[in-house]
Automatic annotation (TrEMBL):
GO terms for molecular function: aldehyde dehydrogenase (NAD+) activity. Keywords: Oxidoreductase. This is Aldehyde dehydrogenase (NAD+). It comes from the Bacteria. Residues 1-23 are annotated as: Disordered. The active site is at E251. Belongs to the aldehyde dehydrogenase family. Residues 17-476 form the Aldehyde dehydrogenase domain. The keyword Oxidoreductase applies. Its EC number is 1.2.1.3.
């Protein structure tokens, strides 16, 4: 019989109010993995009330910051102890390589431990005043119940980057994971309870965006929405949160440039370009999907990238030798295939890939694809494809590279490959992106703040800055 999950509310599994469930499938084999609760407004309301009760309870409200840190540390330890189970769970659900998930699960406890260490360093300031008799100080307070809405591409990592600072600051949460990846987030909530967080501090309502996500955003008891997902959904969520004057952190889509200059180590750059776009089958917000190569190294780079793309081992994400798994679900695969067709109609040439690869597995596979003869006005260059598709374009001057790279509505990340230090600094300053990598791609850590510029987001995640997203500042004046 198929495994069946409820929501996780008030520290226990709770059946959906209308009894409805939906299936989650393994995108490599198409087998049904489990059924998750199909949440609707009454489930969301129940979860928010549980989170609000936990937030108001003195056992949580008056818990020392040091103790909150201890709980987060314990959660990090429990995640480490259960790493293999969590890694497999997510790999089965979204088709990410088990190898890669094991890496993410090594980083996740570090993330929780980092915020464990920050919990007792959240503090206000004493502000100078014009009179020695007047005392003015600030207090950094939690917000209340945080609604966290996350996508399917890295559920545990992206949820933890909200949960850890939110709990460190003394909030409680209701999480709405993607309908494609529920199970690992339910497990994370169970581990939070096991770590000692009170029932109701971490709640999960599973289900679809319009049925469960929207009621969460619109719930009057939510003090803040923290969203990671597409720019279209983010824009609707920001409008709803804005109309109620509640805070909103948004991590949205990208169309990041990866720029290779004539003085770069082209072999290294080619590896960086391949990792930039083909990791996780291109389903990462920071995918370097627009590749700009100086005309003098364009042919060499294209050849190296295409050679590597063609040799990528495609197959079962659970196998160690596999380098590229399937796309996470059928509509995602269809969207990628349709973008490539659109590109060809617009005049692009499929240099490599552009089809289903040769594999016996029935899942949603798509070959690593390199498009050439593309221009900056084509849809394949302007819109986020969220799949293993790189558009490669030549440029002649640094100024042109910068102009083309910045000619996008997005501003999440950018890569620069050069041996010229002055150019590296000039490009880092000029690029309109929240993260710039020079001679590397994808480097990140819990300590390093991340912000999407332009249509790629609002607010900061990771690092100390993230604590500000989950606190409010009170100014107290005392006439002594
Ligand atoms: P999505 O916007 O379709 O869904 C994200 C989440 O929002 C899901 O949980 C979904 O159920 C929910 N949702 C959908 N409609 C909603 C609504 N009206 N109200 C409330 N919730 C709603 O995105 P996706 O396809 O799951 O994820 C892929 C996108 O996420 C890509 O655009 C990618 O770039 C982006 N992403 C960004 C980052 C980042 O750090 N900037 C990281 C990962 C993914």
């Amino acid at each position: 019989m198929t495994e069946r999950h409820g929501h996780f509310i008030g520290g226990e599994q709770v059946a959906p109010s209308d009894g409805e469930h939906f299936e989650s499938r393994n995108p490599a084999t198409l087998e049904v993995l489990y059924e998750a609760a199909r949440g609707t407004a009454p489930d969301v309301d129940r979860a928010v009330q549980a989170a609000h009760a936990a937030y108001s309870d003195p056992r949580w409200r008056d818990l020392s910051q040091t103790r909150r840190g201890h709980l987060l540390r314990r959660l990090g330890d429990l995640v480490a102890e259960n790493a293999e189970e969590l890694a497999r769970c997510e790999s089965l659900d979204n088709g990410k390589l088990l190898r890669e998930m094991r890496g993410q699960l090594t980083a996740l406890p570090e993330y929780l431990h980092y915020y464990a260490g920050l919990a007792d360093k959240i503090q206000g300031d004493q502000i100078p005043t014009s009179s020695p008799l007047m005392l003015n100080y600030t207090m950094r307070e939690p917000l209340g119940v945080v609604g966290a809405i996350t996508p399917w591409n890295s559920p545990l990592t992206l949820t933890t980057s909200k949960l850890a600072p939110a709990l460190a600051a003394g909030n409680t949460l209701v999480i709405k994971p993607s309908e494609h990846t529920t199970r690992s987030i339910l497990r994370l909530a169970e581990l939070a309870l096991e770590a000692g967080f009170p029932p109701g501090a971490v709640n999960v309502v599973s289900g679809y965006g319009t049925e469960a996500g929207q009621p969460l955003v619109d719930h009057p008891r939510i003090a803040k929405v923290s969203f990671t997902g597409s720019t279209t959904t983010g824009s609707a969520i920001a409008a709803s949160a804005g109309s109620r004057f509640i805070g909103c952190t948004l991590e949205l889509g990208g169309k990041s440039p990866n720029i290779v200059f004539e003085d770069a180590d082209v072999s290294n750059a080619a590896m960086g370009v391949v990792a930039g776009i083909f990791a996780a089958a291109g389903q990462t917000c920071i995918a370097g999907s627009r590749v700009f190569a100086h005309r003098s190294v364009y042919d060499e780079l294209l050849e190296k990238v295409s050679e590597r793309a063609q040799s990528i081992v495609i197959g079962d994400p659970l196998q160690d030798e596999t380098e590229l798994g399937p796309l996470a679900f059928e509509a995602q695969r269809d969207k990628v295939a349709s973008y490539v067709k659109t590109g060809v109609t617009e005049g692009a040439r499929v240099h490599t890939g552009g089809c289903r690869p040769d594999t016996e597995l029935p899942g949603y596979f798509y070959a690593p694809t390199v498009l050439t003869d593309v221009t900056n006005d084509m849809r394949v260059v302007r819109e986020e494809i969220f799949g293993p598709v790189a558009a490669v374009m030549p440029f002649d001057t640094e100024a042109e590279a910068l102009r083309l790279a910045n000619d996008t509505e997005f501003g999440l990340a950018a890569g620069v490959w050069t041996r010229d230090l002055a150019r590296a600094h000039r490009m880092s300053r000029g690029l309109d992106a929240g993260t710039v990598w020079v001679n590397t791609y994808r480097a990140m850590s819990p300590m390093s703040p991340r912000q999407g510029f332009k249509a790629s987001g609002a607010g900061v995640e990771h690092g100390m800055e993230s604590i500000r997203e989950y606190t409010r500042l009170k100014s107290v004046w005392i006439n002594t």
